[in-house]
Design brief:
about 280 residues; alpha/beta; 6-stranded mixed sheet; 3-stranded mixed sheet
Length: about 280
């Protein structure tokens, strides 16, 4: 709340600088996560040099700090401010697919400012988006973050009790949004290549999309030099797949490839501090 109070009174450039400072502080107090980030980068980009690794680790932490500086000030932003912060390419695709009445899955990753992506998508389309969230251990922080998340009319579904509510939302033609890029379980999920390495990946998006014939839209917001974002909207096509093990694998592989392409183009915008390959390496 204190950071949000300060951030709400800053220009977009000063808010970015505040975020970079916060990111530097995160890096200082998390040597274990910093080590994981370096290790992940060396796995994904084995032919880069130490200067490049250092640069991407620093920028990845800065990205986390910028997210904090932006999200903590969401309560103070007008709709016009949000429109200036993030621009969409092909946003009408969301409304088009939603109008088909089949339900809709919005799929992204921990890339750019994913919180702003979900918030603004609901605001700009006037469609309430049901966001799958992981409750935070700190209940006060969790409550405050959730207040920001639903300010534009979105709704929340806890990942710990998501299955039934997700299915009901979809069957009623609603929209759900989720991130599926972190390490999944080894007993319930599947392994697909990510940067050429078999990686435990959530199969729930594939199961939902194929079982209920739901359109899926992806986006990975890219921060620009002026500290705003551009988010391109595109469909993850799966009309050639059926609801079986091979179909689920192929769908998940397509998502993983889309994410990898986004990360390769802007590696500093992904969260490298997570042990993505903990069951592989």
């Amino acid at each position: 709340m204190f950071i949000g109070f300060i951030s709400s009174h800053l220009s977009i450039s000063l808010r970015y600088r505040l975020g970079c400072w916060i990111g530097g502080f995160f890096k200082f107090i998390s040597p274990g996560r910093k080590k994981i980030a370096y290790g992940n980068l060396k796995i994904a980009f084995p032919y880069k040099n130490n200067d490049w690794y250092n640069s991407i680790v620093n920028k990845s932490y800065q990205n986390l700090g910028v997210i904090v500086s932006e999200v903590s000030a969401l309560y103070s932003f007008t709709d016009d401010t949000i429109h200036k912060m993030i621009r969409y390419k092909n946003l009408e695709l969301i409304n088009k697919k939603h109008s088909e009445g089949k339900g809709l899955i919005l799929l992204s990753g921990h890339f750019g400012n994913w919180e702003l992506l979900a918030y603004s998508a609901g605001l700009f389309t006037n469609i309430p988006i049901h966001i799958i969230v992981k409750p935070q251990k700190n209940s006060a922080a969790d409550r405050k973050i959730n207040e920001y998340r639903i300010r534009s009319g979105n709704k929340l579904i806890s990942m710990h009790k998501a299955a039934r509510e997700i299915i009901m939302t979809i069957q009623n033609g609603g929209v759900i949004a989720l991130l599926a890029d972190q390490s999944a379980t080894t007993d319930k999920d599947i392994f697909v290549d990510f940067f050429g390495i078999p990686s435990a990946t959530y199969k729930a998006p594939a199961e939902l999309a194929l079982k209920y014939n739901i359109p899926v839209i992806c986006s990975f917001p890219v921060r620009q030099n002026d500290h705003t974002y551009i988010a391109e909207i595109f469909e993850l096509r799966h009309d050639d797949l059926i609801d079986d093990e091979q179909g689920i694998y192929e769908f998940t592989k397509r998502y993983s490839n889309l994410l990898e392409n986004a990360v390769r183009e802007n590696p500093e915008l992904w969260v490298w501090q997570h042990r993505r390959w903990k069951y592989s390496i």
